[in-house]
Design goal:
By secondary structure, the chain is mainly alpha-helical. It has one domain (36-160). 69% of the residues lie in helices and 5% in strands. It has six helices and three strands, in the order ααβααββαα. It has a three-stranded antiparallel β-sheet with strand order 1-3-2, with no helix packed on it. α2 (13-29) runs antiparallel to α5 (106-127), α3 (39-59) packs antiparallel against α6 and α4 packs across α6 (135-160). The radius of gyration is 18 Å and the shape is globular.
Length: 168
Amino acid sequence: MQFLLEIIRRTPPWVFGILALLIVLGVQQSRERRVSRGRVLILPLVMAAFALFGLSQGFGWNPVALACWAAGMVVAVAANEFLLHSPRGVRAEAADGPYLVPGSWVPMILMMVIFVSRYVFAVTLAMHSERREDAAFVAGSAGVFGLLSGIFAARALRIWRTKPAGSP
């Protein structure tokens, strides 16, 4: 227990600010909302930037990390496209939006998973800097971050492709 408290004590205060912001965003996502075509892209872009920033801090612009991150994105988009079809129940008011998106706790859960993953990743590298050279750690971390970022991208893509009721 003392070990965990020490890790939390050494965490920069701005990390807790990001956590609070993610919780607020997650709660907003839990309610039905009207979203413009442009706003649909904001969350996926922020989550992708958050993941890429973490990878660049941990590994620099490592081509293996970037490739694994991109592969994770592709897998997430494909899985959503062919298996999950998330989010469901989106309605478009016009051909180019705005969209009425049902509330869901899925984005909150994903944001918390990304946050915790990034936190564990940062703590691991702070305590074991030799992991920066571990190919499996690099590939695995990048792939997980890509997969999680890709879920947001996949959801945005499904919303963007929603047509108004009665349109071909």
